[in-house]
Design goal:
With 137 residues, the chain is mostly beta strands. It is built from no helices and 9 strands. InterPro entries: ApaG_domain (IPR007474), ApaG_sf (IPR036767), Uncharacterised_ApaG (IPR023065).
Length: 137
């Protein structure tokens, strides 16, 4: 499967790109469970090295319920990105509705120890409309 990044945001020379895909094989619409996988690429085009310290996600489901998720690093790592470097990782998001959205920010630590927030772009989560995945009316 060839991925392309559908969403991007740049903050202070750091670009966050997102590709998101619905995974029907991990989803069970009949049980009210839908699952997406997202691939993130973080590119440091700034003039200084920065370490990713924390993440904050705002995940909204199709009913408007918001879940805030905070944690250290990404998938167990706190990568150091020197100028020109990028870091890729893949993670997933389950929802109890066939659509929703995600957005958030990373907190990076600059070489002088000061923090900076880097925006993660808003991206929709949407299951294809199928007989099984259609929202009850």
């Amino acid at each position: 499967m060839k991925e392309f990044f559908q969403h991007a945001a740049t903050t202070d020379g750091v670009t966050v790109r997102v590709a998101v895909n619905y995974l029907p094989e991990q989803s069970h619409p009949e049980a009210g469970k839908w699952f997406w996988v997202y691939h993130i690429r973080i590119e440091n085009a700034s003039h200084e090295a920065m370490r990713l310290r924390t993440r904050h996600w705002r995940i909204t489901d199709g009913r408007g319920m918001v879940n805030h998720v905070d944690g250290e690093g990404v998938v167990g790592e706190q990568p150091l990105l020197t100028p020109g470097q990028s870091h890729d990782y893949v993670s997933g998001c389950p929802l109890t509705t066939p659509f929703g959205s995600m957005e958030g920010f990373y907190t990076f630590e600059r070489a002088d120890g000061s923090p900076t927030e880097v925006r993660i772009p808003f991206f929709p989560l949407a299951a294809p409309e199928t007989a099984e995945g259609r929202t009850p009316r």
